[in-house]
Amino acid sequence: MTYNRYGVFYTPPPGALASFGAAWLGWDIETGCPRAHPQIPGLLRAPAAITETPRRYGFHATLKSPFRLARHATQDGLITALAALCAELPAVPLSGLKVGRIGRLLALVPQGDTAAADALAAALLRRLDSFRAACRPVGLARRRAAGLNPAQEALLARWGYPFVLDQFRFHMTLTGRLGDSEIATVQHVLTPVLARLLPGGLRINDVTLAGEDDKGRFQSIQRFALGPHP
Q1: Rounded to 5°, angle at Cα 209 from 73 and 167
Q2: For 169, which DSSP code?
Q3: Bridge partner residues of 94 (DSSP)
């Protein structure tokens, strides 16, 4: 199967966190299937409404943002290159995750030093850039409409995405954009739920190549182990 776009993500391994994330968003990136949303008391709206925007991407952290393949590139070639690159890159330790705000949305964000995660994302960005087709004008316009600072504008022009390198922030999106009262409520409700599922520390041992299907939904294509481990 071929896909419209490809992205390199961190997706949690099978387990309680991955299962909750798939159900919360209503889409399982591993199986490429919808999931029933959980019943969580205390929310102002149903999870289906809160998660409509991030649902199609599944539960993940973006390491290399979705891109169309360049004319000369193939899916098989991308898989081969990504496998070789991951074999060179070390696993990434994180002190842990917590529910936090990024602008008007909620996400799982890292605690402590993120230098290793930042370096992983930068390596994937640079080393796989030859597989990326140039951004279409409509895509550039959509990014600019959200409001970019000069540094982000320069990154968009060079890399096709504004939130890379020094603008990159590792995060696993949980909601779409929310108003002030709702974002506070959802954070209050989700924090204890996720605290029971989150490990004290997190280690990124592999990355996932994901593809966007014709309905705009992402699903896992293949996991690639990182190594050698430090």
Answers
A1: 90
A2: -
A3: 202
